[in-house]
Amino acid sequence: MQKRKMWLTTCACLMATVVALSGCSIKPNVDSGSASSAPAASNQPAQADVVSNVTLNMATNAEPNFNPWFPTGFAESQPITEILYDGLTKWGTDYQPAPALATDWKPADDGMSWTFNLRKDVKWSDGQPFSADDVAYTFNEIVLKKELGASNSSNFVDVDKVVVVNPNQVQIMLKKPWSSLPNYLAWYAKILPKHIFEGQDPWKLTSFNKEKPVGTGPFKFVKYSAGQFVELERNPDYFGGGAKFTKIIFNIIPDSNTQIAQLLSGTLSMINVTDPNLMEKLKSNSNLNVNELIDNNYYWVALDQSQERFRDVKVRQALLYAIDRESIIKGVLKGYGSVATGPIAPIQEKYYNKNVKTYGFDPEKAKALLKEAGYAPNAEGFMQKDGKVLEIDMPAGQYGVLVQASQLVQQYWQKIGVKVNLQVIDWNTYVQKVVSNRQYDATVCWWRAPVDPDVLAYYHSNSAGKGNNIPGYKNPALDQLLEAGRKAKTTEERVKIYNDVQALTAEELPYLYLWYPTLAVATQKNLTVPKTTFIVAEDHISEWTIK
């Protein structure tokens, strides 16, 4: 079964830019050789620019997995795998696809395939040469095998197969035209080494997934101590330009308050701010820089629509009317967000449609819609239909503001007579329970997606109950719009189609849309990184500088 990695770019859900990470502290590196001894390459920074014997200390929120396609690897793993591996494309700082393992690409005239020319100077970290065979193996034998349920594999439902043209060229053959394929290939779609995985069960290969991964990225694996840290070192042979420091240590720190405390003490030099309550405190600290960011990111409530009661649109609309989203944004987010209207965030100015159905806070309207759906209060005040109380089990993952938001949703729903059982669980358990096993009635989480209006992987009926369609929503009319969006060849066509997508999703509510967050990255002033989200910044790690 296909499953999604959220969040964060990301719950998957997910996800999840969210990155649950993050920080770095600069320490002398006393147990490794100087990075200046690394072999020089024409596209690496000059050796004088490389800071020798320096370690950056980061943080991740839970136990990671080093296989980027592992079914339950999400926000806890992505900050690490992003710099261990490469995809065919990567994110530019403008959030558009840029060359990585592929130097260039172009679609066929009929739109049914894309040709990618590959770099010729790439080696795996074990010294073996990278080739087109690795690309074909990753997709044909792992991503496209539905029975494996690789994380994010539902993004590639329109890919038929990958064909090796020669050692330095591949063709991606499609079932249907897909104009935004290069965007999705930059979205956690990393290439794995065929010479290690061939003939192996990709999820049972513990020697790779948990012990010693082999990648092509700017950093190489050194050591993993469960519950403690992951140690990486600079890859001196990296084709994309070497980093200016020698090591990164990702400390496993589940508690965001502990991450903040270590940032303030100088132990960590960079964090992704997941608690807006601390934003002003960080911004007032003269030793820190706090960069506020917008992203293609939205928070939501998913309702399990394999259950008949949640397939009634009046029930979904009622539950959204019952939530005071403005109060959540003011109280929980401290104003760092805006009410969400659908799956395309305002960062996509060209495509964002603000003229859609909206749902102000209206508990009486919520009760009236539940009455139209056949519910009436029982003697205890709970809404009931056909003798069954409207009772909802809602797991909440310990990440960022998810628990606080879930508690408020619980309170708002109980005020209109909905019984809500809230279960707070750790992040790894949450991903297994909600994303992998779909064991929930309702849940609060978020999506990060490529900065492109193509949301087919998250909403198409083919991904219901699998992959990224967490609530299992099915609608043939929406399917047709999403497929048309992938076929469209002009911006004008796409704008019209995705305006219609937003109008439909605002009416139908596949998810209950909560808010678009304002993100922030806080760094010590001695570390300079591109002013973008953490994962995108990692794709440009050669540009990081340290005073």
Automatic annotation (TrEMBL):
Q: What is its main location?
A: membrane
Q: Where is the signal peptide?
A: 1-22
Q: How does it sit in the membrane?
A: Lipid-anchor
**Hydrolase: is it a keyword of this entry?**
no
UniProt keyword Transport present: yes
Q: Which SUPFAM superfamilies match?
A: Periplasmic binding protein-like II
Per UniProt, the keywords (alphabetical) are:
Signal, Transport
A Pfam family that this protein carries is SBP_bac_5
What family is reported? Belongs to the bacterial solute-binding protein 5 family.
Q: What is this protein called?
A: ABC transporter substrate-binding protein
> What organism is listed for this UniProt entry?
Paenibacillus planticolens
